[in-house]
Amino acid sequence: MKIKIVLLTALLSLPLLADAEGLKLKSSQGEFDQYTGQITLSGEYSYYFEDEVLGDVVCFHPYMPSDQLIPRSAHDQRSRWFCFNQTNQAIKAFKINKKPKEGYEGYTGHATVTVGDYAVYKGESEGFDTAKLISVKKAEAPRLVKKSGY
Asked: Strand, helix or coil at 9?
């Protein structure tokens, strides 16, 4: 009898565990689809001192297979990456020095992070997905990136 109760309890809790992590569409407004929930991703973070396109942001490029947690419609073939919507929090979390070093253009490193409040950019002009940094599970120290010379 106790085994039946344990099995029944386990079976009933499976849907709760499946929904424990993941993103759900909250709203679609203008150029963004807003999602609720949280996901944990492993990948590479980056910060560039003078990024004329992105601006002053810390971005994250998740590795496979965790990149599949980022929502994309069937016709959207863009790579799955985003920038944190709270730059100063991300800079502190990854221990990035914002002061440019001569001969270098920024920092990069590998990390595992949990993010939430994900927003998918659907626009056709320059733009990017954003997410709120919830926590850094592990992160290597930032490595300087040399200027490319062009």
From this structure: helix
16 pLDDT tier (thresholds 50, 70, 90): very low
List all residues 6 or more positions away from 142 whose beta carbon is below 8 Å from its beta carbon.
45, 47, 94, 95, 96, 97, 107, 108, 109
Q: Calculate the alpha carbon distances from 32 to 41, 61, 72 in Å.
A: 21, 19, 12
Domain-located, residue 115: yes
Contact 124, 31 (CB under 8 A): no
Reported as a single tens digit per residue, the pLDDT across 126-149 is 889 999 999 999 999 999 999 886
Average pLDDT of 70-96? 93
Shortest CA distance to 93 belongs to which of 109, 78, 71? 109
Determine the number of helices (DSSP H) and then strands (DSSP E) in the chain.
Answer: 2, 7
Give pLDDT, residue 141: 95
* pLDDT for the residue 27: 94
Give the chain's domain count: 1
Is residue 58 assigned to a domain? Answer: yes
